[in-house]
Write a structure and sequence with these properties.
38% helix, two-stranded antiparallel ribbon, alpha/beta, 303 residues, globular
């Protein structure tokens, strides 16, 4: 005869911790403290009588029992999610929930969204800004906008636009005495996004550069771009994210040379391909880039 189950909430904490293999990131997702996650996992392990995680160097791995439990828990969460969606009122057809990186939301999507609202007032667009990849079976997300290679297992990805990195800064930087040739940048304060190292651009223009750790580092363009606008230095930024700032004059582009980087994509699960609200928003997104991009979108079914 089966014994009593642990509290169901414990499985939500376990699934998040197992997915991230990190209690801190699980705590951020669950909006609780690291200690709250640790205590719930400890009580779950005590209830089950077996460890679910083990330390590996500075990281953490699942035990064999933990892996088996995770498979069952994720399958159960997926079935519950599908069950809930099946009985939701029909007004969900007019609510579109989108997951996207914070920088893409703030600097590209939100400034354009009023146009969509004007032409499609019957669809309410909700945005969840996060750096985490979306789990479409669990997170209640209809569509994601992502930078990346364009191949995500089991998902449809549609290329939104080409992406390139360009050097930008405030026109007032150093009293307006801006560099005249690429090598002048070596004497300027450089702002760093570690996902897009300056070495990529300097190599493209034929300038010898070695990153010796000088210059401030930022974890996201939401920090990098305000730093550039505030006159702290020169940033190597995605061109799509600085279009409005260049048009307004808050930033200026230095030199015509750019370097390609990972494309941006529209992403959603195959089951959503026939969704009217997704197709409407997808077409609107593609219209936003057609003045600067070729009109045919590349559709890739990732397997």
């Amino acid at each position: 005869m089966s014994g009593p189950l642990p509290p169901l909430e414990a499985f939500r904490f376990f699934e998040a911790a197992a997915r991230h293999l990190n209690f801190t990131r699980a705590a951020e997702e669950m909006h609780v403290t690291h200690g709250a996650v640790s205590q719930r996992i400890k009580r779950l392990e005590e209830h089950l009588g077996t460890p679910l995680f083990r330390r590996s160097g500075r990281g953490m791995l699942l035990t064999d029992e933990g892996r088996r439990l995770l498979e069952r828990v994720q399958a159960a969460i997926g079935e519950i999610t599908e069950g809930v969606e099946a009985i939701r009122p029909n007004n969900t057809d007019r609510i579109l929930t989108i997951s996207t990186a914070p920088c893409l939301a703030a600097y590209w999507l939100l400034p354009r969204l009023a146009d969509f609202n004007e032409h499609h007032p019957d669809i309410q667009v909700n945005i969840r800004a996060t750096l985490s990849l979306t789990d479409f079976t669990r997170d209640g997300i209809d569509m994601a906008l992502r930078f990346g290679p364009g191949k995500w297992a089991g998902l449809i990805s549609i290329k939104l636009r080409d992406e390139e990195l360009v050097p930008v800064c405030s026109p007032a930087l150093r009293g307006g005495r801006l560099p005249r040739v690429p090598s002048d940048l070596l004497k300027m304060p450089l702002l760093h996004d570690e996902r897009h190292p300056w070495s990529l651009w300097f190599e493209a223009v034929g300038v010898d550069y070695r990153d010796a750790g000088q210059g401030p580092r930022y974890s996201d363009a939401n920090l990098l771009l305000p730093a550039a606008i505030g006159g702290l230095g020169v940033a190597l930024a995605r061109a799509s994210l600085v279009e409005a700032e260049l048009a307004s004059g808050r930033l200026v582009r230095l030199f015509s040379r750019s370097v390609p980087t990972t494309y941006s994509y529209i992403v959603y699960p195959p089951r959503s391909k026939s969704s009217g609200k997704i197709q409407v928003f997808q077409e609107w997104l593609l219209e936003q880039v057609r003045p600067v991009e070729r009109k045919d979108a590349i559709v890739a079914q990732a397997g």
